[in-house]
């Protein structure tokens, strides 16, 4: 059995002088996956035109029976999330996927986009932009927080739906608050009222076992460069077959009107190596043991949250069943409550204590979101505990 912890730092290029507790923000790619990515880049450069125009997506003729490289990679990713490759396309990140879905939607002036106040800020901005452009309305639902009973979240969203709601954007794992939401139950409530569901699973691959079709959503967007060990930037967009014909990428290119995968697979010349190396990230995780990785990260995150709340004498209101590899908990009140206080503390921890961690202000408090990855162990979080306590 692999022994996780700081010895695993050898598998990454992370600066050993920095205590890195922020894997959830932009991810960190293992050396093995970076090597696979570079090998792909080298192969492209030997015959760029053949590789990109023929072998990658088939814009030009390819010998019969030779699989397209991008579709082959998509099949691997789809298998990992319980889906079919024909229903999944690569996008740069979940934000790009959200743009594709919302900007493809035929919204009328009286229509409403429902989001929650737990939504990722960039996704909330997309909703606001599309609503402004179409004359529609964004209904931002204030969610109960903290919450012990997931059913309360389902009921809160169900009660906010109305006859004007066209689409609901629901996180699978919320970004700043790091909660696993009961996505399937929420989607069922939305569909009962004729509301489409866009699931934001930015953090889910690698944290949660996934069977996307079983969730009952219309679209699912996710990142692979966060918890699935892919190079940046690498994400995907999954859509039910009935939602694919009206779906278009934010960048229109040679695939227009040639089908879902054709449109998204080629949006102009770009580096496809993050997508093509994404299967190597999954292979790395499988070699370590997928369930072992998830279990280690979850247990470390939960034990750490308990330790930090005790050390700082703050209240941990999280429900362990709603926690994956990240936990958000309040910081001591004396550290402030405004965005400027959050920025100041985050900068001080990085530049003075050499600790990288996500801190934000929300609802009149400062919060820290810790990310537990297999290269972390309790001593890393004990450093954070002491550094914060020294500033109280």
- What is the terminal separation in angstroms? 41 Å
Structural class: alpha/beta
Strand runs, count: 12
The arrangement of helices and strands along the chain is EHHHHEHEHEHEHEEEHHHHEHEEEH
Tally the helices.
14
CATH architecture of the largest domain: 3-Layer(aba) Sandwich
The major pleated sheet works out as: 7 strands, mixed
Helix content: 25-40%
* Strand order across the largest sheet: 2-8-7-6-5-3-4
- Uncertain segments are none
Number of domains as seen in the coordinates: 2
CATH class of the largest domain: Alpha Beta
**For this structure, what is the CATH homologous superfamily of the largest domain?**
Type I PLP-dependent aspartate aminotransferase-like (Major domain)
Question: Could you please say which CATH topology of the largest domain applies here?
Answer: Aspartate Aminotransferase, domain 2
- Radius of gyration, rounded? 21 Å
- The coarse silhouette is globular
% residues in beta strands: 5-15%
What value does the average pLDDT take? 97
Structure in a nutshell:
By secondary structure, the protein is α/β, with parallel strands linked by helices. The chain has helices at residues 23-26, 31-46, 48-56, 69-80, 94-104, 121-134, 150-160, 183-192, 260-265, 273-276, 278-288, 290-312, 339-351, 378-389; strands spanning 19-20, 88-91, 112-116, 137-141, 165-171, 196-201, 219-223, 235-239, 326-330, 355-356, 358-362, 365-371. The protein contains 14 helices and twelve strands.
């Amino acid at each position: 059995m692999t022994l996780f912890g700081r010895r695993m730092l050898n598998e990454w290029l992370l600066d050993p002088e920095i205590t890195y507790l922020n894997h959830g923000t932009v991810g960190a790619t293992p050396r093995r996956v970076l090597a696979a990515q570079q090998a792909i880049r080298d192969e492209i450069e030997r015959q760029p035109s053949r590789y990109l125009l023929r072998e990658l997506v088939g814009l030009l003729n390819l010998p019969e029976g030779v699989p397209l490289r991008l579709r082959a990679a998509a099949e691997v990713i789809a298998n990992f999330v319980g889906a079919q490759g024909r229903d999944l396309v690569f996008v740069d990140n979940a934000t790009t996927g959200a743009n594709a879905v919302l900007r493809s939607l035929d919204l009328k002036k009286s229509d409403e986009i429902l989001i929650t106040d737990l939504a990722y800020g960039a996704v909330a901005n997309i909703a606001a932009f599309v609503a402004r452009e179409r004359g529609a309305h964004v209904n931002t639902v204030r969610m109960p927080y903290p919450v012990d009973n997931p059913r309360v979240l389902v009921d809160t969203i169900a009660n906010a739906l109305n006859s004007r709601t066209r689409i609901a954007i629901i996180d699978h794992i919320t970004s700043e608050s790091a909660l696993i939401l009961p996505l399937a139950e929420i989607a069922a409530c939305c569909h009962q009222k004729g509301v489409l569901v866009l699931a934001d699973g930015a953090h889910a691959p690698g944290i949660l076992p996934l069977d996307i079709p079983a969730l009952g959503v219309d679209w699912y967007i996710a990142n692979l460069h966060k918890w699935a060990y892919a190079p940046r930037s690498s994400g995907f967009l999954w859509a039910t077959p009935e939602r694919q014909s009206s779906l278009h990428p934010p960048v229109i290119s040679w695939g227009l009107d040639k089908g879902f995968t054709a449109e998204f697979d080629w949006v102009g010349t770009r580096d496809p190596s993050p997508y093509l190396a994404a299967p190597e990230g999954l292979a790395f995780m499988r070699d370590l043991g997928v369930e072992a990785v998830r279990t280690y990260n979850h247990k470390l995150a939960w034990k750490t949250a308990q330790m930090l709340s005790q050390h700082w004498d703050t209240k941990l209101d999280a429900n362990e069943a709603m926690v994956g590899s990240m936990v958000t908990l309040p910081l001591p009140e004396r550290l402030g409550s405004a965005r400027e206080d959050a920025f100041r503390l985050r900068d001080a921890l990085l530049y003075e204590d050499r600790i990288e961690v996500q801190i934000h202000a929300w609802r009149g408090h400062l919060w820290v979101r810790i990310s537990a990855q297999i290269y972390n162990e309790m001593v890393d979080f004990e450093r954070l505990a002491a550094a914060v306590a020294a500033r109280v």
